[in-house]
Design a protein that fits this description.
mainly alpha; 3-stranded antiparallel β-sheet; 4% strand; globular
Length: 286
């Protein structure tokens, strides 16, 4: 992981980040749609996300099956409050909120004729890349890995379909897909490096949290003592970049034909979201 992080830094040093960020940021505030509509959309998305965070605190204890660091055994926990924010899904939600909040602020400043500060442009551009990678990866993993495992084990999956969970696993990706169609931003492939860096940062956080914090791994495959765990985690970090690159390709298509891009996003999102614990035929326990 240290070697990969070093390579990321080395690659980043040769890039003109100022131009990359400024070019992308300008496109986020130059939409074909009415600026007021875009502003209201972004405020709504940020508000719904913040509402999900509030719900995580107000709803009480959650459900989390974790791997205990010392015992090396799976255990069911009932986290409350900030304890819930150790999951990758919660980081997906936070990334989504940060993007739409910064993008909303940029839209407002553009409408009133005030120059958007560099720090807002930077936050907006970087968080869009991270939010795309995390949201689409999270939705795909929940739909095609986590839910089938729950169905096969006959464990209850109802907890995954609560309001804040739906926001993490489904609506984050949907909101970003709609944002892509509304804004058609100019994305840069270099930002995929940021996605890899975010993935490595989460892994580092998970390790520190298990060794010196909560004492457990939210996902069993994160345990670095397992034979291939570090390679699995690096693969997931790269997967974030892959999902972002897919969005980059869609942005190129959108610039040429918005309708085709909208259809691609609709099909893509429909394949990775799931709003109810309905068993599919090949997931039946009978």
């Amino acid at each position: 992981m240290g070697v990969v992080a070093g390579l990321l830094v080395w690659l980043s040093l040769g890039l003109d980040w100022s131009n990359i960020i400024h070019t992308s940021a300008e496109s986020f505030n130059d939409s074909w749609a009415n600026p007021t509509v875009v502003l209201l959309w972004r405020i709504a998305c940020a508000g719904i996300g913040i509402g999900a965070v509030v719900s995580m605190f107000r709803i009480g204890a959650g459900t989390m099956q974790v791997l205990m660091h010392e015992e090396r055994a799976m255990k069911m926990l009932a986290p409350v409050g900030r304890e819930k924010f150790v999951t990758f899904s919660s980081w997906t939600l936070i990334s989504n909120i940060l993007y739409f909040s910064s993008a909303g602020a940029a839209s407002l400043l553009a409408i009133i004729g005030v120059e958007v500060p560099l720090w807002i442009e930077t936050l907006q551009t970087i968080m869009f890349a991270i939010a795309c990678g995390t949201a689409f990866l999270t939705a795909a993993v929940v739909r095609h890995v986590i839910l089938p495992e729950l169905f096969q084990s006959d464990r209850s999956s109802d907890f995954i379909f609560k309001y804040h969970e739906q926001m993490m696993h489904n609506f984050s990706a949907i909101f970003l897909a709609v944002e892509m169609v509304l804004v058609v931003p100019t994305l840069r492939p270099e930002l995929s490096l940021v996605c890899v860096g975010m993935g490595l940062f989460y892994v580092f956080f998970a390790y520190v949290n298990a060794y010196h914090g909560s004492g457990f791994y939210v996902y069993s495959f994160i345990d670095p003592r397992r034979r291939y765990a570090p390679f699995v985690m690096m693969a997931l970090a790269v997967a974030l970049a892959v999902f972002y690159v897919c969005m980059y390709v869609v942005s190129l298509i959108a610039a040429a034909n918005l309708l085709v891009a909208a259809l691609i996003l609709t099909a893509w999102v429909s394949l990775i979201v799931q709003f109810s614990p309905t068993r599919e035929p090949d997931q039946s326990s009978s």
